[in-house]
Amino acid sequence: MKTIELITINHESGEEVNGTITFRSELDICVKITSPYKGLSRCKHIPYFSRPHNSFMTDYGKSTAKSILSHLYELGRYLEDNREFLALQRALHFYNSDYSDPDCQKRFFDSSFPFLIPNGTRDDVMECLR
Do 28 and 88 have their domain in common? Predict the structure, then answer.
């Protein structure tokens, strides 16, 4: 198991994106973006039945980490570009800023983003929006 490994990509937008692999094992990998956005992370898991074919400790893990970092950058950029819209959506979906109702969260994420936000990343998104 390896932890804290720095990664850098050049996104197709031309911007350099930095992050860290905060956890890496045969079956799991977690990546956190550090620049130009902060506070967003994502983990992936390889199911046991795929383990003979894949491992995050190989080049597959490195390419997966770069892909995750690219998606985190796109999410951060969407949050920045649509901050006003997302504030209105939050007010519409969450009464008295109570973010605990899972049905409200589902409706918020389904109606506010043009792409899927993984469950493990939703808390990070809510924290960034506060």
Answer: no
User: How many whole angstroms separate alpha carbon 115 and alpha carbon 101?
Assistant: 21
Asked if residue 122 and residue 75 are part of one domain, the reply reads no
| Integer Cα distance of 89 and 110 in angstroms | 11
Asked if 33 contacts 43 with a C-beta cutoff of 8 angstroms, the reply is: no
76 and 102 share one domain: no
Distance CA 114, CA 103 (A): 18
Q: Please tell me the pTM assigned to this model.
A: 0.90
> If you average pLDDT over every residue of the chain, what do you get?
91
Counting DSSP H helices and E strands in the chain, the numbers are 4, 4
3-state secondary structure of 26: coil
pLDDT tens-digit series, residues 19-78: 999 999 999 999 999 999 999 999 999 988 877 778 899 999 999 999 999 999 999 999
> What Cα–Cα distance (Å) separates residue 123 from each residue in 36, 47, 58, 73, 96?
19, 23, 29, 16, 18
Name the pLDDT band for 129 (thresholds 50, 70, 90): confident
